[in-house]
Amino acid sequence: MNIYLDVDNTVIDSLTANVTLLNKKFGTNVLPQDIHRWDFTDCFPNIKPKDIYETFDSDEFFEIVRPIPHARDFIEAHASDIIFTTIGTQENLEKKGKLLFDLGFGDCRFLGIPTHKNKGSYDMSDGIIIDDAQKNLFASNAKRKILFNYRMDFTSDWTNKWDGEIALDFRELEYMIYDNLI
Predict the structure, then answer these.
(1) Quick one: three-class SS letters along the chain?
(2) 127-168 residue pLDDT tens
(3) Helix 90-102 to helix 49-57 angle, to the nearest 10 degrees?
(4) Which among 146, 140, 144, 137 has a CA at the least distance from the CA of 165?
(5) Using CA atoms, how far apart are residues 120 and 117, in angstroms rounded to an integer?
């Protein structure tokens, strides 16, 4: 069974990297846990979509972003089944693919989705989707859908309407996947 594994805020801690760079740009001291809107406007009211794309595309983002704890163990255990699924600009997708390769995940497949599409644009009916954003879970036709919520934030606009399965970390996710395979 394929495991469609999101990258941003599932495999890598994009939120912390973005907030770090946006604090630098806007001269603020926002913490990642202060963010509850996917477009950052709750803490950066003057931010424009261009600012977000520039941050996600920047070399500095890829220099400071770090993997989510225990992601490596999960990915190594399921490498032959994992298809990384991630949305971004062409530049972001290329850099994200290189980052995943550099992290040692080159054996996994990679589905880079352009920003004008969503995860519902691809047939995932043969597997499980694991994502931190409820909109991607709602859009997908995967057999099983799991919200990955390592920040335990149930009030943000990307998690607050999900009432399905939730994994709070990769260890819990491993048990959920393993129980399903037995």
Answers:
(1) CEEEEECECCCECHHHHHHHHHHHHHCCCCCHHHCCCCCCCCCCCCCCHHHHHHHHHCHHHHHHCCECCCHHHHHHHCCCCEEEEEEECHHHHHHHHHHHHHCCCCCCEEEEEECCCCHHHCCCCCEEEEECCHHHHHHCCCCEEEEECCCCCCCCCCCCCCCCEEECCHHHHHHHHHHHHC
(2) 999 999 999 999 999 999 999 998 777 778 788 889 999 999
(3) 30
(4) 146
(5) 8
State the distance between the two ends of the chain, measured CA to CA, in whole angstroms. 13
**CA 177/CA 39 separation, integer angstroms:** 31
- The Cβ-side half-sphere exposure at 98, using a 13 Å CA radius, reads 10
Rounded distance between C-alpha atoms, residue 73 and residue 76, angstroms: 5
The phi, psi pair for 165, rounded to 5°, reads -65, 145
pTM: 0.94
Stretch 25-52: mean pLDDT: 94
Distance CA 137, CA 114 (A): 17
The letter for the amino acid at 92 is N
Contact 9, 139 (CB under 8 A): no
Task: Give percent of the chain above pLDDT 70.
Answer: 98
CA–CA separation, 67 vs 103, rounded Å?
A: 9
